[in-house]
Amino acid sequence: MKLFTYERAASADAAVAEGAAPGTKFIAGGTNLLDLMKLQIETPERLVDISRLPLNTIDEREDGGLTIGALVPNSDLAADPRVIERYEVLSRALLAGASGQLRNKASTGGNLLQRTRCYYFYDTAMPCNKRAPGSGCSAIDGYNRILAVLGTSDKCIATHPSDMAVAMRALDATVVTQKADGDRRRIAIGDLYRLPGDTPEVETVLEPGELITAIELPVPVEGARHLYRKVRDRASYAFALVSVAGVVTMDGDTVASAALAFGGLGPMPWRDPAVEAAIVGKPASDASFAAAADALLANAKGFGSNDFKIPLARRTLIASLRELTGV
Amino acid sequence: MKWTINGRSYEAEVDVRTTLLDLAREHLGLTGSKKGCDHGQCGACTMLVGGRRINACLSLAVMHQDDEIVTIEGLGQPGNLHPLQDAFVRHDGYQCGYCTPGQICSAVGMLDEVKKGWPSHVSADLTEVALDDAEIGERMSGNLCRCAAYPNIVDAIREVAGVDDREPVLETAREIGA
């Protein structure tokens, strides 16, 4: 690990004032950042410890939604009775990720910002445009079994590893931040992440020093069925090869509304309105589910060892829709 | 810097990069916690911080100066074993023993999570938790045992959790002098 200076922020205002300086990183749970610092993939010169800031509560808003403090540990969020009752897909996604020890420490904000587990991002002996911009992508022609089939570029095919973020994308969560100048903004989770394009090292729209302070969940969808289905290489404690987060309401046999997001397929928690349009307002049937899968995978591109993800995503989506609709 | 570990105060000057695990092992002589992968994958370093199980290898010592920290040394000692330590001995819940301190600290934290009603990935109903082998396996998946003593680890945890129906290997831990 490279040497850094350490300071504990006394307030969010103090944290953002410090956070914009070059080489500065916020640290909360640290479960991903310290892992990367040990491997010198992340080499901050200064850590600003935000872990003691009072951003660790889950509060009900007057509009009926929930505001989740950015420092709420993943464990607490998953076990919160209000989350279980109203946003089961989020509890399920959190519980499908990491281990008990990691969930106890990992924060909600940090989970959103965790880095890819691409083998080549982690291997400092190999070129990687995300870790060392301009050095090339080793994964495109390399061992890419766990990597993306949607939203890739010729510079990067990394996947976003979070389960939680996939559920939040299906729930239309909003990320609340505080910028270095103290200004706050609200970012729809669908706008938080950027596709890799030519700059895979830039993963979000956050500015230097911008701090996630909370995540807002909108009013829960009444009468919805929730599902988080994760396909992985081990039964527990493994990243998703493919995952589906779904929130669906039915009107008799017709799909009244659907929110579907996907993990393991792209560089961000993936959501495509065309997938939902293929089933909403139509009788739930394998024919419309197949059309949804066609829409999801129309532009899918495999890179050899991850080709299997395309049929796997298709089957996982169809199985998920059968479960969500009861067909 | 100052820490409270196992109810005792410690003071040491350490590099800011020092993890909680290295602090305990290399600076404070608390070598019960083990370093396996050093990346949060194996669980051998598991400690209880503020009563919650965490990976001490992914924790900076400097960040935990205000916390109540418990290591395997604080759970029990020879002649005064924690019920889980005692159960691990009697059920032969280990072979080489390297992962055992982490397994036991993790199990202590895990049983507390169950008591709080926290569900797991394998809970069919997230509002009702009934501990069985599948639940224990899922909840302990952050602790690897390369000797694969898992069946006996599960039996030891079942006994302490009060869902025991399996005979231990030994009548008492004293049979091997623990």
From TrEMBL, chain A:
Gene3D superfamilies: 3.30.465.10, CO dehydrogenase flavoprotein, C-terminal domain, Uridine Diphospho-n-acetylenolpyruvylglucosamine Reductase, domain 2. Keywords: FAD, Flavoprotein. The keyword Flavoprotein applies. It holds the Pfam family CO_deh_flav_C. Coiled coil: none annotated. Residues 1-222 form the FAD-binding PCMH-type domain. The keyword Cell inner membrane does not apply. This is Xanthine dehydrogenase family protein subunit M. It comes from Sphingomonas aurea. The lineage of its organism: Bacteria, Pseudomonadati, Pseudomonadota, Alphaproteobacteria, Sphingomonadales.
From TrEMBL, chain B:
It holds the Pfam family Fer2_2. It comes from the Bacteria. Signal peptide: none annotated. The keyword Iron applies. InterPro entries: 2Fe-2S-bd, 2Fe-2S-bd_dom_sf, 2Fe-2S_ferredoxin-like_sf, 2Fe-2S_ferredoxin-type, 2Fe2S_fd_BS, Aldehyde_Oxdr_Iron-Sulfur, Beta-grasp_dom_sf. The keyword Lyase does not apply. Keywords: Iron, Metal-binding, Oxidoreductase. Residues 1-75 form the 2Fe-2S ferredoxin-type domain. CDD domains: fer2 (cd00207). PANTHER family: OXIDOREDUCTASE, IRON-SULPHUR BINDING SUBUNIT-RELATED-RELATED. This is 2Fe-2S iron-sulfur cluster-binding protein. It comes from Sphingomonas aurea. The lineage of its organism: Bacteria, Pseudomonadati, Pseudomonadota, Alphaproteobacteria, Sphingomonadales.
